[in-house]
Amino acid sequence: MRRMPAPDFACSMTVPKSLLALAAACTLLMLSGCSAVGVLGLQTTSQVVYARWSDAPRTGDPDVVPPAFVPRDAKVVTLRTLLDGHGSILRFTSKSPLDPRLCRAGTLTGRPRLDTNWWPIGRPPARGMRCSPDWRVFVRSGTSYAWAPS
What's the CA gap between 133 and 128, in Å, rounded? Predict the structure, then answer.
């Protein structure tokens, strides 16, 4: 069997290693999506979800510990927090009322600084519950929603 010689049109262009590294890094970021945001320290919020209140820690980082006014029978407790410490939103369902030692009926001023796909569309109602230390709580369709400005 006779071998054919290699074609004589080979490209002799050299690409700097730094350009190759940059292209590889960009490709990796595109493929990894949102997970790269957290790795690079660009993440601005944290979110935790507990199936039941009893699954949540009782003390520690306020980014992962539900506030004290959340009833002990609460289910699907979702807490999303701005990592700069300037706002949180909360969602849960419960058949129990909020603790009257920690919550009182009042005017809900302001609005949350952050949003997510589970937060109700539109402006929060003008009246609801004000809970210690600085939470505003309202109920829509049997689900409680709350926000704290800071």
Answer: 15
Helix, strand or coil, per DSSP, at residue 112: coil
Closest CA to 84 of 66, 63, 56: 63
Specify whether the CB–CB gap between 125 and 141 falls below 8 A. no
Q: What is the dihedral of CA 21, 26, 32, 33, to 10 degrees?
A: 160
Domain ranges of the chain: 14-42, 45-148
Residue among 73, 77, 82 at smallest CA distance from 65? 77
Top pLDDT among 28 and 43 is at 43
In this prediction the pTM is 0.70
